Amino acid sequence: MIEFREVSKVFHTSKQNEVKAVNDVSLSVNEGEIFGVIGLSGAGKSTLLRLVNLLESPTYGEVLVNDKSISTLSPKELRQMRQKIGMIFQNFNLFNSRTVFGNVAYPLKIAKVPKQEIKKRVNELLSFVGLADKADQYPEQLSGGQKQRVGIARALATSPDILICDEATSALDPETTGEILNLLKKVNREFNVTILLITHEMNVIRTICNRVAVMENGEVIEEGSVYDIFTNPQERTTQKFISSVLNDHISSNLFKQLQASKKGRLYRVIFMGDATNQPVLSNIAKDYNVSVNIINGNISELQEALFGNLVVELQGNDNEIDQVVEELQKQVQVKEVTDHAG
Amino acid sequence: MQVDWNTFWPRIFEATGETLTMVLFTLLFSSVFGIALGLLLYVTREGNILENKVLFNILNVFINIIRPIPFIILLVALSPVTRVVVGTTIGTWAAIFPMTIAASFGIARIVENNLVSIDPGIIEAAKAMGASPVSIIFTVLIPEALGPLILGLTFISVALIDFSAMAGTVGGGGLGDLAMTYGYQRFDNSVMFVTVLLLIVLTQIAQFIGNYLARIFLRR
Fold first, then answer.
1. Average pLDDT, stretch B161-174?
2. Which residues of chain A have a CB within 8 Å of the CB of B130?
3. Looking at the complex, does the CB of residue B28 fall below 8 Å from at least one CB of chain A?
4. Which keywords does this chain's UniProt record carry (chain A) (predicted)?
5. CB contact under 8 A, B130 and A111
6. Angstrom distance (rounded) from CA A103 to CA A278
7. How far apart, in whole angstroms, are the C-alpha atoms of residue B71 and residue B59?
């Protein structure tokens, strides 16, 4: 649906200085999926997103949308293609001089849709996003969440195949973020719209994305299904993003205390798939003379599958603990925790 | 020497009419030229929708050359051109031409300043929806800047009332001319007071209408 082929974007900040905002990125977004790109500010994700509808043009490489290289389009073809790619923004970017109705009608006017049809379509969309009663209000009279709903309705007006979201929830409070994410999920399911979003919030990725790419310094450093990335992150930056939502690390103080007490050994146990339905730890406690003390952890739902991440202290003699670890490793991932970040 | 007020009132009415003619027609013509020039200046600026460094620099320098020239000098300097365009250098219409030139460049700057304050994100959004540069100008830039633009034009109208008084010196007529010839040159303060009072009333009316219209478009 969207394919980046070895794409780079270089900005010249002055005659000598250049910044590689996007550096040799290859990615493909499949039809019907919700693909997330996460990164800190300055990682290049915003530029990457703008390459999709050619708000920025690639310096090297090419971007394909529906198997068409967009750089080769004429200005007119480009405008027609843009009508098939909806876009929503962190700051909503609504027209202040137009009512809610006028904002949603705008892309249809640009596409020269007849007036009667515009009216019907806009009312349909406003009901879909739950703002049918706000049609005559101006953006400044709306809350942030309502503004983003208008943004979504406006982006969907021309029935696009693709929706690109530029930090769409970053200006919203957590509750409103949840509502907007649900709405995006509904857009994806009901209209089969492929969504490419960028964010710095791992929560957004966990809540709605199927696949994710992690960006750092203009490069994609890790990519995969959200479940794989959450259960088995490779890069340090990815691990940090995951810790931000899973709270899966114990503090250095607690770690020192636990080590000093010398009561037992610390292990990180990761449950995936079938293991989450088995009483793995309590079976161990029954079969061996080792007690299991859960220090920290959580079990969360990812992509409709359960994923557990626990830090446990195994108390008993060393020999038996080794046997327990061996037994556990047959069913789940076990790693000894040797520092507080581990 | 005292004026005969019975015969003088019609002269004041006539002069008020001349002032209004000069101000309104100048406002009309200079709005068209000024807004077009201001838009052109904005869209050709670096990074904007019709970026064109050469055109931008030419316009920018040209506006900076015209604007600092005192109006009374411009009025005289332009008189050969005025003769070609209007056919004469005397009278109300001969005053409207230099006034339009002076006001257009002022309006161009005001328009540009108002456009710069539009959130670039809004323009980006329109672009992302597939709007062409021309439709962005007419459906985004102008409507989004309309409120402050009306206030800017109001400011210009008041300046035009001032210009029209100076235009009196080239035989443009109007209240300013009346104040000068009867009041200043004949030492008749009463005539000057009446005309100045009328100029103040005109200014108040212009400001009131401008504020009222701006409020509608700003919805505040």
1. 80
2. 78-83, 107, 110-111, 158
3. no
4. Amino-acid transport, ATP-binding, Cell membrane, Membrane, Nucleotide-binding, Translocase, Transport
5. yes
6. 53
7. 20
Q: What angle do CA B42, B215, B140 make, to 5 degrees?
A: 30
| Contact state of A93 with B125 under an 8 Å Cβ cutoff | yes
A101-to-A130, A157, B61, B173 alpha-carbon distances in Å: 13, 11, 42, 50
**DSSP letters for A84-121:** TEEEEETT----TTS-HHHHHHHHHHHTT--HHHHHHH
Domain boundaries, chain A: 2-237, 247-336
Residue B202 lies in a domain: yes
Q: How far is B129 from chain A (nearest CA, A)?
A: 5
Nearest CA in chain B to A139: B219
List B72's β-bridge partners, or say none. Answer: none
Task: Note whether residue B7 is domain-resident.
Answer: no
Q: At what angle do helices A144-156 and A100-110 cross, to 10 degrees?
A: 20
Domain contains B97: yes
| pLDDT tens per residue across span A182-217 | 999 999 999 999 999 999 999 999 999 999 999 999
Range of the domain at B193: 18-218
pLDDT digits (tens, 9 = 90+) for A105-121: 999 999 999 999 999 99
Residue A267 contacts B, CB cutoff 8 Å: no
What residues are paired with A214 via a beta bridge? A38, A222
Q: Using alpha carbons, list the distances in angstroms from residue A93 to A3, A57, A149, B144.
A: 26, 21, 12, 12
Q: Do A89 and B139 touch (CB under 8 A)?
A: no
Over 60: is that where the pLDDT of A341 sits?
Answer: no
CB A225 within 8 A of CB A303: yes
Residue A18: what are its φ and ψ, rounded to 5°? -135, 150
- The whole-angstrom separation of Cα A147 and Cα A173 is 13
Tell me the range of A275-289, A297-311, B72-86, B168-182 where mean pLDDT is highest: B72-86
Within-domain flag for B4: no
> For A107-157, how does the pLDDT look when each residue is reduced to its tens digit (9 = 90+)?
999 999 999 999 999 999 999 999 999 999 999 999 999 999 999 999 999
Q: Which CATH architecture has domain A2-237?
A: 3-Layer(aba) Sandwich (3.40)
Provide the number of structural domains found in chain B: 1
Tell me how crowded residue B120 is: count the other CB atoms within 10 A of its CB. Answer: 11
Query: Where residue B42 sits, what CATH number does that domain have?
Result: 1.10.3720.10
B130·A107 Cβ contact <8 A: yes
Examine domains A2-237 and A247-336 and report if their fold is the same.
no
CATH classification (class only), A247-336? alpha beta
* B124 vs A contacts (CB less than 8 Å): 55, 89, 93
Interchain proximity B127–A55, CB inside 8 Å: yes
